[in-house]
Specification:
Layout lengths: L16 H14 L8 E2 L2 H8 L3 H13 L3 E4 L3 E4 L1 H12 L6 E2 L11 H13 L16 H13 L9 E5 H13 L5 E5 L4 H9 L3 E5 L1 E2 L2 E2 L1 H10 L5 E4 L13 H14 L2 E5 L13 H4 L4 E6 L10 E5 L5 H12 L4 H12 L2 H24 L4 E2 L6 E5 L6 H10 L2 E2 L1 E2 L13 E5 L6 H23 L2
Parallel strand pairs: 4-16, 6-7, 6-10, 10-11, 11-12
Antiparallel strand pairs: 1-3, 2-3, 5-13, 8-9, 12-13, 14-15, 15-18, 17-18
Helix pairs in contact: 1-3, 2-3, 5-13, 6-13, 7-8, 7-12, 14-16
The chain binds pyridoxal-5'-phosphate.
The site of pyridoxal-5'-phosphate has 14 residues, from α7.
Length: 463
């Protein structure tokens, strides 16, 4: 790290003073006069040397910070970032700055090409290999449904093949459940923050969402009870009791019990999105277990085994099996039989458990990096999934945080994206730590986040 007596040349022209100063800073970083890691003079000192106000220097630094060129660290000072160097190269070489993507929510990456090669070779070379290229309806998958249902029972979810319709991921599972239980114009209860896919489905199906409050124990059942008393025309609730996206919270046992009782009392149908749920080492009750007759249980192998399989399922009472089958068939006609065969094969020979274990270990390792880098900043996380719900200090507005992170080379998602209500200001962002290819990139991305959080305190101090 170098320290410099920076002597900016202010070419003011028709610019206001702080912009001219920011421009001079940018020029000096680009020319290499201020290499990455260089410490800049303190705001007050620079202001007095240039005979400008502290506010002018602060605003210039803020502009450079928003552009990702400098970072302020509490107690240590302001430094030229490493991304600034990349940006300088960027400009020199005409190449693009490579962004670290923490916007998309992927499971932790693993490498198991050998398992894939072995299983697909075995499958395509078998006697019925070519038959996997044909159309197939749900009855054609009965053996596969039995295999998946048996596997789910080993994870503690008591499902039977006769209740299970296979779907293209949990995404289609949610669509099938909503299409089976609602008509356009219906109201549905939904957690006030929810997975954007659910928001989209509600819109596409022409439903009216009725937001239910959530707190640290998940869906607030007393609020749901109050809403039911006010609006007795809502028949369906969609929720994520085990690892909520985006907050990562899980409903307490007491809350799940209360919810089951409310559903029974008021004849409410429950759509349980358990996308992160099934895992042999995870003892926790599902709503489906508590009220199997009124729950549509939706999940997939996406997060635990492989998202590219696109094998999901919706499980409900046998009474609605035919309706669900018909709806799923009308949406996608069939699932790719080769992928369903691969999923069943991996379950039968233990590969699915092995892949789930590897993903879990990578998730735990990445969550450890989160705790090391973010330290005491308030955030929520779970060892069962790969996103982090980061609470922002008051000084940061989420849209500005997302923009500043992007300027430094990191993509994250604003908390507002998850809100059911249109005009909210959720002071949090979601960080997807499964998406970067390596742990090092996770650490780099989180360091950008930590620096931004520190910077907000630093700049708030200098007034
Ligand atoms: C809560 C939740 N439900 C459903 C899905 C969709 O899962 P799939 O990839 O199986 O369609 C996701 C994907 O991120 C999710 O986060």
């Amino acid at each position: 790290m170098t320290s410099t007596i920076w002597k900016p040349i202010l070419k003011r022209g028709d610019q206001v003073l702080y912009r001219a100063l920011a421009q001079s800073l940018t020029d000096d970083i680009r020319s290499g006069k201020l290499p990455p890691g260089t410490q800049l003079p303190p705001v007050r000192k620079l202001a007095s040397r240039l005979k400008v106000t502290v506010g002018t220097v602060r605003r210039a630094f803020e502009l450079a910070m928003a552009a990702g060129l400098i970072d302020a660290h509490v107690g240590r000072g302001t430094f030229v970032t490493h991304l600034a160097d990349m940006r300088t190269n960027d400009i020199k070489n005409g190449s693009r700055l490579e962004l670290i993507d923490m916007a998309i929510n992927k499971p932790a990456p693993i490498e198991a090409g050998d398992l894939l090669a072995r299983a697909t070779t075995r499958i395509v070379r078998s006697d019925n290999g070519w038959a996997l290229m044909d159309y197939r309806d749900q009855s054609g998958f009965s053996q596969h449904r039995r295999t998946i249902a048996h596997w789910l029972r080993t994870t503690g979810v008591p499902v039977h093949a006769e209740q299970m319709v296979l779907t293209v991921g949990a995404s289609q599972g949610l669509a099938v459940a909503l299409a089976t239980t609602t008509r356009p114009g219906d109201k549905v209860f939904v957690e006030e923050l929810t997975y954007p896919g659910v928001k989209n489905l509600i819109r596409i199906f022409g439903l009216e969402p009725v937001p239910v409050a959530i707190d640290r124990e998940g869906l607030v059942t007393s609020h749901l009870a109050a809403l039911i008393n006010q609006q007795n025309d809502v028949r369906v609730l969609i929720c994520m009791p085990r690892v909520h996206n985006p907050t990562t919270r899980s409903m307490s046992s007491a809350r799940k019990q209360d919810l089951a009782e409310l559903a029974n009392l008021h004849d409410l149908t429950l759509i349980e999105d358990d996308c992160y749920g099934p895992s042999p080492s995870r003892p926790s009750t599902t709503l489906f277990e508590l009220c199997p007759e009124r729950t549509f249980y939706v999940s997939s192998l996406s997060k635990s085994v492989a998202p590219g399989l696109r094998v999901g399922y919706v499980v409900a009472s046998e009474r609605v099996f035919s309706a669900m089958s018909a709806i799923s068939q009308s949406m996608s006609w069939t699932l790719p039989p080769l992928m369903v065969e691969l999923a069943a094969d991996w379950i039968r020979d233990g590969s699915a458990d092995k892949l789930a274990q590897l993903r879990h270990e990578e998730t735990v390792a990445r969550q450890k990096i989160v705790s090391n880098v973010l330290g005491n900043h308030p955030y929520e996380a779970s060892q069962w999934n790969t996103h982090v719900w980061l609470h922002l200090p008051e000084a940061w507005n989420p849209a500005r945080f997302v923009e500043s992170a992007k300027n430094r080379g990191l993509l994250v998602v604003s908390g507002d994206l998850f809100s059911i209500q249109p005009r909210t200001n959720i002071s949090a962002v979601r960080l997807g730590i499964g998406s970067p290819a390596t742990r090092e990139l996770v650490r780099n991305g989180l360091t950008i986040v930590a620096n931004l959080l520190h910077a907000s305190y630093d700049f708030a101090d200098v007034t």
